[in-house]
Design the sequence.
């Protein structure tokens, strides 16, 4: 499975963005999918994860209530980001677990497939 993240850009504080993660080379609906981000000078961190059916979701405390992860169970997953603030500035990565795995992991080491990242910059 190859993942392609897109939708990043430069926005102002309080604005919204929707990131997309398009999959190719496999049936994307069969994998747990997560979003991670790396802010300037920081380690990559967990943002959100969604299970295979799209029913169960988990979020980092820093984005809970502002970000929404979803998927169409075809070939695309999404991260709707509202009320953005400068602390959300980062490169955002989508990732997928192996098809045999069902746990909604927050650990990036447990993800087998990664997109190239899309930059989100939030100005104050």
Sequence:
């Amino acid at each position: 499975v190859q993942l392609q993240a897109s939708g990043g850009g430069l926005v102002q504080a309080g604005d919204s963005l929707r990131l997309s993660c398009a999959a190719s080379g496999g049936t994307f609906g069969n994998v747990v999918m997560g979003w991670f981000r790396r802010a300037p000078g920081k380690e990559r961190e967990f943002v959100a994860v969604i299970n295979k059916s799209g029913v169960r979701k988990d979020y980092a405390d820093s984005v809970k209530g502002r970000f929404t992860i979803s998927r169409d169970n075809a070939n695309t997953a999404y991260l709707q980001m509202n009320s953005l603030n400068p602390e959300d500035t980062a490169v955002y990565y989508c990732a997928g677990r192996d098809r045999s795995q069902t746990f909604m992991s927050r650990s990036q080491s447990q993800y087998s497939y990664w997109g190239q990242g899309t930059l989100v910059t939030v100005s104050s």
Observations:
- The chain has no helices and eleven strands.
- The mean pLDDT is 93.
- The first strand starts at residue 2 and ends at 6.
